[in-house]
Design goal:
It is built from 10 helices and 17 strands. With 419 residues, the protein is α+β, with helices and mostly antiparallel strands. The protein has 2 domains: 258 residues, Hnrnp arginine n-methyltransferase1 (Distorted Sandwich), CATH 2.70.160; 135 residues, Vaccinia Virus protein VP39 (Rossmann fold), CATH 3.40.50. The strands form 4 sheets. Strands 8, 9, 10, 12, 13 and 14 form a 6-stranded antiparallel sheet that branches. α5 packs parallel to α6. Keywords: Methyltransferase, Nucleus, S-adenosyl-L-methionine, Transferase.
């Protein structure tokens, strides 16, 4: 996938402050008219010299990089610190046991977590129920239907027919749910990959999907939605949601970094810093407290799902994070929001630390060194995001950053892989 060259990145850095104008978006997602306010902050940066730390470009994050798809599945749990306050390290034998005996429990638990995510599910419900003119007598395609909840919403809102496509065995459960609720004549559940199935119709009027992963693009489901759009969507048809934006901020997080990352420097008198190197290179998915935020929040990228190409999910974006108080920066934090702009009234939700919590939480990228920053000083740089070439469901992140402050001068490049 093509990424911007250095000249283009430098031009973006110089133009960022003039091209990104502050604006506010109000998102409604509950029946009681509760709203969230998101602020797109002006961006600017400067050209800086940089060093490289941690991984060099092209280095693998772990040994044994030649893997099959099965290896990727099992190894996705055999790594450090991806979720919450836990360090995950399971053997493939134990995971095989879980897969055979506990798969249904794991899937059910995951589905329940998403359904109980009120911000997520209630937003989709409100978008559909409060805008029936978008669905009335329309042919709808639900990509990655899961339990079929979005298909049920669409059917209840008056859709002519809904095709619910689900690749996993959950498709059988979804079909049973559809039957239990009396919508078998409106909803057809199809088991299989979007890229491999054939729909009973040539075109659809609306594509709806909850495709967003951690860090917005993790697991690469966006590509599947774009494939369905290009193959089946009628001209001027709707893709819901149609906008998604990725943001960046910086936080103080001394306690966690000391407990979970610096721990490896001295383990009962032994040097295990090689594990520290790996753990810091894997982004953490966790909830960030609002009082940890040290800087402004910077808009990195907005994606127009109705128009974008697959390669647009790979990008390099400049950022300038300005300190709002004297503090230390231990990590940068990414989060996203999504918008449904074709509704009668703009709707959507945010996964940011200043908004109501969701199951996506936030994505934390720990820095190799602690940055001391004074109010008004800035961390500037670029973030490059792209699917991993060997396993596209993973995300490779290159972070270049620098600070030239009173108490801290630093210029670094760090490489992360979300997997």
């Amino acid at each position: 996938m093509d990424l911007p060259n250095n000249a283009n990145v430098n031009a973006d850095l110089n133009d960022a402050v003039t091209t990104s104008k502050p604006s506010k978006i109000r998102f409604e997602y509950e029946d009681d008219e509760e709203v969230e306010t998101l602020e797109e902050v002006a961006a600017e940066s400067s050209n800086v010299e940089e060093d490289s730390s941690m991984y060099e470009a092209g280095d693998t994050l772990t040994a044994g990089d030649e893997k099959t798809s099965a290896d990727y599945y099992f190894d996705s749990y055999s790594h450090f610190g991806k979720f919450g306050n836990c360090t995950w390290k399971y053997s493939s034998f134990y995971l095989l046991y879980l897969c055979k005996v506990g798969f249904l429990i794991l899937v059910t638990s995951s589905m329940q977590e998403m359904l109980k995510d009120v911000v997520r599910t209630k937003t989709y419900q409100n978008v559909i129920y409060k805008n029936p003119f978008l669905f009335k007598d329309k042919i709808v395609l639900d990509v990655g239907a899961g339990t079929g909840i979005l298909s049920l919403f669409c059917a209840k809102a008056g859709a002519k027919h809904v095709y619910a496509v689900e690749c996993s065995s959950m498709a059988h459960t979804a079909q049973e749910i559809v039957k239990l609720n009396g919508y078998s004549n409106v909803i057809t559940v199809l088991k299989g990959k979007i890229e491999e199935i054939e729909l009973p119709v040539a075109q659809v009027d609306v594509i709806i999907s909850e495709w967003m992963g951690y860090f917005l693009v993790y697991e690469n489901m966006l590509d599947t939605v774009l494939y369905a759009r290009d193959k089946w969507l009628v001209p001027n048809g709707l893709v819901l949601p149609d906008k998604a934006s990725l943001y960046l901020t910086a936080i103080e997080d001394a306690d966690y970094k000391e407990d979970k990352i610096e721990f490896w420097n001295n383990v009962y008198g032994f040097d295990m810093s090689c594990i520290r190197k790996q753990s810091i290179a894997e982004p953490l998915v966790d909830t960030v407290e609002q009082n940890q935020i040290v800087t402004n929040c910077q808009l990195l990228k907005t994606m127009d799902i109705s128009k974008m190409a697959s390669v647009d999910a790979s990008f390099t974006a400049p950022f300038k994070l300005v300190a709002e108080r004297d503090d230390y920066i231990h990590a940068l934090v990414a989060y996203f929001d999504v918008s449904f702009t074709k509704c009668h009234k703009l709707m959507g939700f945010s996964t940011g630390p200043k908004s109501r919590a969701t199951h996506w939480k936030q994505t934390v990228l720990y820095l190799e060194e602690v940055l001391s920053i004074c109010q008004g000083e800035a961390v500037t740089g670029t973030m490059t995001v792209a699917p991993n070439k060997k396993n596209p469901r993973d995300v490779d992140i290159t972070l270049k950053y620098s600070i030239n402050g009173r108490h801290c001068q630093a210029s670094k490049t760090q490489y992360y892989r979300m997997r």
